[in-house]
Design brief:
- The complex is a heterodimer of chains A (about 250) and B (about 260).
- Helix content of chain A is about 20%, strand content about 25%.
- Chain A has a nine-stranded mixed barrel with strand order 1-2-3-4-5-6-7-8-9.
- Chain A is globular and about 55 Å long.
- Chain B has about 260 residues and is of the alpha+beta class.
- In chain B, strands 1-2-3-4-5-6-7-8-9 form a nine-stranded mixed barrel.
- The chains are: A alpha+beta (about 250), B alpha+beta (about 260).
- Chains A and B meet through α1, β2, β3 and α6 of A and α1, α2, β3, β4 and α6 of B.
């Protein structure tokens, strides 16, 4: 082990090296944000009532009249192992961690639930890639001081009620996240995500929510097999743990 | 050059030398990026597999409709995610880890995490089999040497149903080579060591070509399950309508055929 002052000098030298700075653009904060986080459900905000405009309200009422009531045994796509899309994927259930990995020009978020992968480009040039709408959408980020600002569009649109009561969304949905390091009242390291959801086609005004995530260095993101139940029925001939699948 | 200048130069050189242990990280080989498998350069499964009797019996009993996990949206698992298919591989690399992210066609993403930071394997009573396994790795020159254990024996190794036991060890040597014709290639030399299934280790080679313009898209195997779920109810409605129509003596009332089998 090298003496402390020498190690500090080495760290300073390495930090000063241009390749390190260009790699992550903000190496000190990126290093602090890298790792495994658990949602802090208690501290996180809740979605306010969705300010649907008149047309969206009419459409929702029409849907409820024609197809309602929503039957979660049929209508909830989560039951069929389809992951939730943004913004709901970032408003996670408390027990499911996610991991943030910084690599040059990229931030990747690995969710345990549904094994989701979210790719966020730090590359300032969006290029001309055409992509299909997806649950995680298409995200670009930049630094504003110590805050990582992530903007996401091209999010897969969900049908009414398919995800247990989520409001309708349009193709114009755009989500801005301001992600920064904070401390909770006990002084523990947390990540704050101030999210603004813009959707002028269905909302009268943007919806804001702030979420917190707890620093969890002692856990790893595990393997999540939503389809295990169906597979087990097949392999073991056992009845499903989901009542309506039996 | 005066004495002070010389001393500063010597100090800088000494610092640079002393720091080489730290700086070596920056000099680790770079295998990151998006890569596409090249079937022609990869080694196929040998014709005569060195199977034990137990493995031979399991292989003979394989029933694709019943035993193919991918038909149920389960993962391919390690090493099948690495040695099969035509879908791209994304390698994400830092100084302490290399992640291999696969997006198999019509399946969910699979992320293999290989830790290089020397962390110990989980304690014996904390080790459970997983489909992607538990991996540790290290750099040997330009080669990433990785070993993966604790692999779920319900996973299979190929579409023919070749199986493995819980003691399978996957030893890999990953490296980038320059090919005169094809440019940058990522080569994975793989050894499958499982005395319960193989009388001797099986060696395979998997080759990927660098594809800097490619990117992985999101795939959701479960959309098939979701559509199946919706279809079951719609088909039931069709069947009820057809039965009602048949009872009324109507013609051309056949319901569309149900396809419950996984693809």
């Amino acid at each position: 082990m090298k003496p402390l002052h020498l190690r500090i000098a080495c760290v300073l030298l390495a930090l000063a090296a241009p390749f390190t700075l260009s790699a992550a653009e903000h190496p000190a904060v990126a290093r602090e944000m890298s790792g495994v986080w658990l949602p802090d459900s208690r501290r996180s905000g809740r979605f306010p009532p969705w300010p649907l405009n008149a047309e969206a309200k009419r459409a929702a009422e029409h849907y409820a009249q024609k197809y309602g009531p929503i039957d979660p045994t049929i209508d909830d796509a989560n039951i069929s192992c389809l992951p939730e899309s943004l913004p709901y994927s970032m408003r996670l259930l408390a027990q499911y961690p996610f991991e943030i990995l910084f690599t040059p020009d990229r931030v990747t978020v690995f969710f345990e639930i549904y094994g989701g992968v979210r790719r966020i480009r730090l590359d300032p040039d969006p290029g001309s890639l055409e992509v299909l709408a997806s649950a995680m959408g298409q995200s670009f980020a930049h630094w504003e001081g110590d805050t990582l600002v992530v903007e996401t569009t091209n999010i897969r649109k969900e049908g009414f009620g398919i995800f247990s009561g989520n409001p309708p969304a349009s193709n114009a949905r755009r989500i801005v996240e301001r992600i920064s390091l904070v401390r909770n009242p006990d002084g523990a390291k947390q990540l704050s995500n101030e999210m603004t959801i813009h959707d002028p086609v269905v909302l009268t005004e943007p919806v804001k929510i702030q979420m917190f995530y707890k620093w969890s260095p002692d856990i790893e993101v595990g393997e999540y097999l939503c389809q295990q139940d169906i597979w087990d029925q097949n392999v073991q001939g056992s009845p499903s743990s989901v009542p309506w699948r039996q | 050059m005066d004495g002070g200048m010389r001393r500063r130069l010597i100090a800088a050189a000494a610092l640079a030398l002393a720091c080489t242990g730290f700086a070596a990280r920056a000099a680790d080989p770079d295998i990151s990026g998006v890569w596409l498998p090249v079937a022609q350069l990869s080694t196929p499964w040998p014709k005569n597999l060195p199977l034990t009797d137990a493995a031979r019996t399991r292989l003979a009993a394989f029933n694709h409709d019943r035993d193919e996990p991918a038909g149920f949206c389960m993962p391919l698992g390690t090493p099948r995610n690495t040695i099969s298919g035509t879908s791209p591989l994304e390698v994400l690399q830092t100084d302490s880890r290399v992640y291999f992210v696969f997006q198999p066609n019509l399946l969910n993403a699979e992320t293999r995490r290989v830790y290089l930071d020397g962390r110990p394997l989980p304690a014996a009573d904390d080790r459970i089999p997983t489909w992607l396994g538990t991996s540790r790795g290290r750099w040997e020159g330009k080669v990433l040497v990785a070993e993966t254990i604790d692999l779920e024996p319900q996973a299979i190794l190929n579409g023919a149903g070749l199986s493995h036991g819980g003691a399978l060890k996957v030893r890999e040597r990953w490296q980038v080579v320059e090919d005169a014709k094809r440019g940058r290639l990522l080569v994975d030399d793989i050894e499958l060591d499982d005395p319960e299934s193989f009388t001797q280790p099986i060696h395979l080679k998997r080759v990927f070509a660098w594809a800097p313009d490619a990117q992985l898209a999101e795939g959701q195997c479960s959309e098939r399950l979701w559509i199946d779920t919706l279809w079951r109810y719609r088909l039931a409605e069709h069947a009820a309508a057809a039965a009602a129509a048949a009872a009324a003596g109507a013609k051309n009332a056949a319901a569309p055929a149900a396809t419950g089998a996984p693809p």
